[in-house]
Amino acid sequence: MRRNLTALLFVTALLSTAACGGSTTPAPSQPGQPDKVTVGVIPILDVAPIYLGEQQGFFSSRDIDLTLTPAQGGAAIVPAVVSGQYQFGFSNVISLLLAQSTGLPLKVVSNGNNSTGVDEDFAALMVKADSPITSPADLAGKTVAANTLKNIVETSVRASVRKAGGDAAAVRFTELPFPDQPAALEAGRVDAVFVVEPFQQAVLAQGGRKIASSYVDAAPNLAVALYFTSQQLIAANPDLVRRFTEAMKESLAYADSHPDEARAIIGTYTQIAPEVIAKLTLPKWPAEINRESVRTLADLATEDGLLTKPADVDALLP
Amino acid sequence: MTAGKTGRTGKPAGRVRLGLAGLLGFAALLELAPRAGVVPERYAPPTSRIVAALVEQAGEQRFWTALADTARTWATGLAIAVVAGVALGVLIGATPLLRAATASTIEFLRPIPSVALIPLVVVLYGATRSSTLVLVVYAAFWQVLVQVLHGVADIDPVARETALSYRLGRWARVRWLVWPTALPYAMTGVRLAASVALILTITGELVIGSPGLGREIAVAQTSGAVPQMYALVLVTGLVGVAANLVTRGAERRVLAWHPSVRAEVPV
After folding, report:
1. R_g of chain B, CA atoms, integer Å
2. What ipTM score was computed for the predicted complex, to two decimals?
3. Which residue in B64, B129, B182, B209 is deepest, having the highest Cβ count within 10 Å?
4. Does the pTM of the predicted model rise above 0.80?
5. Which CATH class for the B61-262 domain?
């Protein structure tokens, strides 16, 4: 008993040494004071609009003091938003549908980014130069690298295979981070990769071929990722959420109509080489969410068995 | 002992020269391997490109901010771990009842790898410095604590009897008996903790995304900027060397009276 108590006190003491700052309950706005807002983002080109919007003052003009925190992925962002460490976060649609299906109190507040809707997209299903694979239909029984298993890459690649008339269930996936995929493809450790920019350029530079634009195949003008918040923040400070959504809409529209400025800002928060930035295919950044594509993704995810029960898309979207 | 002060490699200048030659040879190997096509140049750039990327990064404010962040997290975590480790080590070690009561708990908690706590700290503190600090303190604390416990247990029985005969009080015994015996152990603990703390600082930044060099490595990796990524990895190595030099210097200063230091050949 005494030992257990000691252990408990001990861990508590250790943890509390590091517990400096970071209130977890959302506070209402103070009159005359800008709201301090932390947004968890992934340092990839998809989030260029929010960096551009910050630079253009779209957030400060709405009394939002914005801090953008790059995280490794949605796995780190979702819990931080739920616990109130971040006020908003950026995550792909499937991750949000999965989080919602486990009962996490999330709500989408703004569009993130979409596929270009045409063959020339910011993400591609690619094979080696000398690969016998010419169509997604040839992928049955082959291994495709996905950055995360049971997520948007699997759903989209299966959609490409289905569209080409192949057996979508027969494709095997193996988990590999995007940065490792071009080397794995070149070494022949996987038969195909699904990469986003700038790794699409890396695969092209080593002579790789694109066989499909899977985000385009999954749904017309597919919404790939969205910005979200917690239900607690919506209840505690609906005005802040409204202002954030407005600022995001302005940022998305600005980025979409000023691709050169978007490219310039990408150079500030990533380490992508300038000559690569000039060649990147940028995603689309519509201000409004393509609800139909979110529904399609939810249906595909249910069909592929990622979601065990149909998702409540209307409850997730604003 | 064998090389001694008169041996071929005994002179400090000679040792430094040999050490540098080893480093240069290693750098040359890493330069030639990709150029000769042994490893793909795209993913394992030659040393010269890494150094060029490092020089370029050194001109950017964000690099120095990251370096300062890493140094701060490391130093803060190490300081908390050392203070807590020494204080609790002396307290537990000097109280037989407490020692018996905590021994199994310590042996249970100590082997838990700090990185296994990442999911927990992310939920508690998000991608903040606090998260990484918890990992650093947790990992470094045990190194110090266990060494101090061993040190306290190593008190010479004759010295202890003598102290009791002279009726030294509790504090006098800690100051003149426990402290000098445990200090060499504690310094070893600090040196071990310093390296472990740096490993966990970089790991936390890399995996959790708290500010620092680790996060910059992750960003460079996500950007496909291979030479920049290796340049930052190189910097973490240099930080490790610097951390080791600092702690060894401190050890030599604090233990100047101790036979182990007096006999040691200066590097």
Report:
1. 23
2. 0.72
3. B209
4. no
5. mainly alpha
